[in-house]
Design brief:
The chain contains 19 helices and 30 strands. By secondary structure, it is an alpha/beta fold.
Length: 599
């Protein structure tokens, strides 16, 4: 027995010592290609098969640790979360909510939103998270379409919705203290009034870890319906099963096992109602026993940088816009100085300058993070080249709501610039192309992360899941090492006069690196291409640039751009936009709104 214990300890030490040399299990399947790449894996932390059991296990193991905080406000320990979940379960039961019923949640990120979400899953109900910046008509439509029985809302949402427009609801509760804002039946209101007494009667000797008993979920059981905020079409209800949530959470445990330990801090700034923020700024962290601080206000640069400095998160999850703003405003102006550029080309001196730039960026983001994981949209090529050049610890992932969300990822130390990582554990990716390493084709996915389909929309489901493969709608290639490179969206691809495939994102990437361009969209009118540009108005104001000067700069940008791209991609004209482009919560431009814009 003693030798067995020694051997087990030796194996444990060996795994931790060599973890960075052990890659995640993944298989890359290339259509019409005879190479299949397989990698072995050692799992450091295995979750229970039931996701709700993983939640229960985390609560018990981290009972006295901090769990969730509203940044600068209240903090809930894991035991506080468990008590609130138990109280909400009493309310659900007495309000006639049954397992399988839908419960919708709409509001800004906050701890009590997270608690209500966990209470929904652990009760056996189906969660319907709704993005807080949807219009009231969209909220009404989603609540009705999802057949929700209850709705949790933030105070600002409550002011702009109408209960009469959602006739199937039993009631509406406030996210702040779970007060009943509206009820069609008396039991809900009466239960809320007597909740503390009812809780005390159910747990007369205090609420303890052994009282936790959550709904036992199964792999194919529906856990939540997430309504997409797509850039090309209206919202569809993505049906996410428990296996997909479990697999995404296990993915976090796989790749960050030796990086994050229970009790460490993270900052949640992405919308929790979006799968990217929900999976990797909330659910994984909760299961891992981390302390999540929710940024409850709009993440302006000043608010965000202060929060990062205070919290010093161990991992940072963000969209490209955050990194790009920091680089454009704090780094690029300095390194474009001719003297600095000259020094950067001198051996040793140049390395020291790059190291100082990198350290400055790391300090601005809290100075304690292992890596910044960028996702949700493409990162600008010029910005990425600079980050790679200075040795900044970033990586880019790839996901979709339909995969809850992860499809591809790679640790920053092995990450290939320009890619979005390699296929995630329990997922297969392939390219629908005769030469998948050279000719872009649609990226197809198969595995545990893939959705069940679209709620009450069998036609859209049949168009998206074909022969067991999820069709992402993204165009890309996969190299011999398994790195995925996204080239654009299938729906965005334009056709040149002579049948050439034109990927507008690639043109936009070059244009957005040019002077005074903050964001842009390339559209097609007949056989000609045009660029819609929203200038960097802050910089224009600081330089006292008028309309005529801006037009002159943009026209020069057009000419310079056309020297860098093929003849069939030439931009014929530019329109300056007066307002920022409308975006999804993950900061992707809603392209479909601008395809018919006047030029």
């Amino acid at each position: 027995m003693h030798n067995m214990a020694k051997n087990a300890m030796a194996a444990h030490i060996f795994v931790h010592k060599h973890l960075h040399n052990v890659h995640n299990l993944c298989t890359f399947v290339l259509l019409n290609h005879d190479v299949t790449i397989k990698k072995t894996v050692v799992y450091i932390m295995l979750l229970p098969e039931s996701f709700n059991e993983a939640l229960a296990q985390s609560v018990k193991n981290n009972w006295n640790r901090n769990s969730m905080s509203d940044y600068g406000e209240a903090t809930f320990q894991y035991k506080d979360v468990a008590r609130n979940i138990a109280k909400l379960h009493i309310m659900f039961e007495r309000a006639g909510i049954r397992p399988g019923d839908k419960i919708a949640l709409c509001g800004r990120n906050q701890a009590r939103w997270g608690i209500a979400f966990l209470a929904t899953l652990t009760y056996g109900a189906v969660a319907v998270p709704i993005l807080h910046d949807f219009h009231s008509e969209q909220i009404h439509q989603i609540v009705n379409h999802s057949e929700a029985s209850l709705l949790f809302v933030g105070e600002q949402i409550w002011k702009r919705i109408d209960a009469k427009e959602m006739p199937a609801l039993k009631g509406i509760l406030c996210n702040q203290y779970y007060e009943v804002l509206f009820a069609r039946d008396a039991p809900l209101t009466e239960t809320r009034k007597q909740l503390n007494r009812l809780f005390g009667e159910k747990y007369p000797d205090s609420f303890r870890p052994e009282h936790i008993c959550y709904h036992k979920d199964s792999r194919e059981e529906l856990a939540l319906i997430n309504y997409t905020s797509g850039t090309t079409s209206n919202s569809k209800g993505v049906m996410i099963p428990y296996r997909a949530i479990w697999s995404n959470t296990q993915f976090g445990c796989d790749v960050l096992a030796d990086i994050l330990a229970p009790g460490e801090q993270v900052l949640s700034m992405l919308p929790m109602a979006h799968m990217y923020g929900m999976a990797f700024e909330f659910l994984y962290e909760f299961v891992r026993g981390l302390h999540i601080s929710f940024l409850t206000k709009m993440p302006t640069p000043a608010i965000l940088l202060k929060a990062l400095a205070d919290i010093k998160p161990r991992i940072i999850i963000c969209v490209p816009l955050i990194l790009e703003k920091i680089v454009r405003r704090a780094v690029l102006p300095k390194i474009k100085d001719p003297k600095i550029r000259l020094l950067m080309n001198i051996p040793i001196v140049g390395d020291q300058i790059k190291q100082r730039i990198c350290q400055g960026m790391q300090n601005a983001l809290g100075g304690n993070f292992y890596e910044v994981i960028v996702g949700g949209a493409a990162i600008n090529a010029e910005i990425e080249a600079l980050l790679k050049d200075i040795g900044f610890n970033y990586t880019v992932g790839y996901g979709a709501t339909e995969c809850a969300p992860i499809l591809a990822y790679e640790d920053w130390q092995r990450f290939a610039m320009g890619s979005c990582g390699k296929a995630a554990p329990r997922m297969k990716l392939k390219i629908d192309s005769p030469k998948p390493q050279e000719i872009p084709g649609e990226i197809l996915a198969q595995g545990d992360n893939v959705m069940l389909g679209y709620f009450k929309n069998p036609e859209a489901t049949a168009e998206t899941i074909i022969d067991g493969w999820y069709h992402t709608g993204d165009l890309g290639i996969i190299d011999a090492e398994g790195n995925v490179y996204i080239k654009g969206r299938c729906k965005n691809m334009l056709l040149g006069a002579n049948g050439q495939n034109i990927y507008p994102e690639e043109i936009e990437d070059k244009l957005s690196s040019m002077p005074m361009v903050q964001e842009c969209v390339v559209i097609q009118k007949g056989e000609k291409l045009y660029a819609l540009i929203y200038p960097d108005m802050e910089q224009a104001k600081s330089l006292n640039l008028g309309e005529a000067e801006l037009k002159s700069i943009m026209e020069q940008n057009r000419k310079d751009l056309n020297t860098q791209i093929p003849a069939y991609e030439q931009i014929c004209g530019i329109r300056i936009m007066e307002e920022e482009f409308e975006k999804t919560p993950k900061r992707s431009i809603k392209r479909f709104l601008y395809m018919n814009a006047e030029v």
